[in-house]
Design goal:
It contains 15 helices and 9 strands. It is of the alpha/beta class. It has a 7-stranded parallel sheet with strand order 1-4-5-6-7-8-9. The protein has a two-stranded antiparallel ribbon with strand order 2-3.
């Protein structure tokens, strides 16, 4: 599948109907564009460095230690969801975790982020990547099992305690393009020169890399769904670096394949990218149940351009959380008004909460949405 026609909308009846949706989870129902009593809300990076409880854990554990230790990953996931009173908890993990069982070493370096020590630049290197060790990632599934057991066994606490609803549990993985970019660049990049050079010029390496990533990521997602994830979010954080033509030619087909394999597990898929306004029509063709919108495009304009054919998630600018209360209130109200109560809107940020964000501002947004009744 390489053309727009081959990657058009899935056939009628393809969309999953999950047990969580049927049982009334506000978050999952919104993912499926079913009626809800109010807009569900959660936040990208809601367990992060802005939260004192998380920083207390980080004093004793590295990021990768937390990800790879189910008890701790579950703890920070649960703490953030309960502290904020949100409608969904996203498991604490990292996009690059699948690299290790694929045979690609990486580490986090202070003030630099992730570093891949032997970047993939040739077809031979791509062929050498493994796809048979995905079981090594089961620590993420074990953390999800603990989160699911916690929220299934106890009444909700925090700001949403009185609301009769089941908290949604989100698993996630990276998208093929974004993970391939990390593999090829070896670190964060401004221009993605090495990625695009390989994508454009090596007709052997790029398809191999896409195929291997799809295999590993689909297995990884299956582990998470089996453990209790209600929804899988696919992060394509770097895909906004592509033109619509390049997205369609090199990325649409493999991303569609991954999303459809995940949906076949019986859960909705959220497809999230940054700076993707020009790509949204093509992203819709993946068949994802929900598209993430960043703050660079008005929510109502983007949703209308998508013909309301998917649910949407977003799209407050994360830095608005630093604004005075009246400004923040107005921006949240603007987004809710743009959604107009249409089924299928999940309130979120256009990207993740940044480290110095005031917790009180995040709580203000949650309270405003719950009071709005939209």
């Amino acid at each position: 599948m390489t053309t727009a026609e081959q990657t058009a909308d899935p056939p009628a009846g393809f969309k999953p109907v999950t047990a969580a949706g049927a049982n009334g989870s506000r978050f999952v129902r919104a993912c499926l564009r079913l009626p809800v009593d109010r807009t569900p809300v959660w936040f990208l990076r809601q367990a992060g460095r802005y939260m004192p409880e998380y920083m207390a854990v980080r004093k004793h554990h590295s990021l990768l230690d937390i990800c790879r230790t189910p008890d701790i990953a579950a703890e920070v996931t649960i703490t953030a969801a309960e502290r904020l009173g949100v409608d969904a908890a996203i498991i604490f993990a990292d996009l690059l975790l699948p690299f290790t069982p694929m045979g690609l070493d990486f580490e986090f370096v202070a003030n630099e982020g992730p570093i891949v020590h032997a970047p993939i630049r040739t077809a031979a290197q791509a062929r050498a990547l493994r796809t048979d060790s995905t079981d090594d990632l089961r620590y993420v599934a074990r953390a999800i099992e603990q989160v699911a057991a916690h929220f299934n066994a106890r009444p909700r606490t925090g700001a949403g305690a009185s609301e009769p609803d089941t908290l949604g549990i989100i698993g996630f993985c990276g998208a093929p393009f974004t993970l391939a970019s990390y593999m090829i660049e070896g670190a964060s990049s401004r221009n993605y020169i090495e990625t695009k050079r390989l994508m454009y010029g090596d007709g052997e390496a790029w398809p191999i890399l896409m195929e291997k990533l799809i295999t590993v990521l689909a297995d990884f997602a299956a582990q998470q769904v089996e453990a209790g994830a209600d929804v899988i979010q696919v992060f394509d954080s770097w895909v906004g670096a592509l033109s619509p033509t390049d997205y369609r030619q090199y990325v649409l087909a493999p991303t569609t394949e991954l999303i459809r394999r995940i949906q076949a597990l019986g859960v909705p898929v959220i497809y999230f990218g940054v700076d993707t306004a020009s790509l949204l029509p093509a992203m819709r063709e993946t068949g994802a149940d929900v598209l993430g919108l960043d703050w660079r495009t008005p929510l109502d304009q983007a949703w209308r351009a998508l013909n309301y054919s998917t649910a949407v998630q977003g799209n407050l600018d994360p830095i608005t959380l630093f604004a005075p209360e009246r400004v923040l209130h107005a921006r949240v109200a603007e987004i809710l008004a743009a959604a107009a109560g249409r089924p299928g809107h999940i309130f979120n940020l256009g990207h993740g909460i940044v480290p110095t964000t005031p917790v009180e501002a995040v709580l203000q947004v949650v309270h405003q949405i719950k009071r709005s009744g939209n």
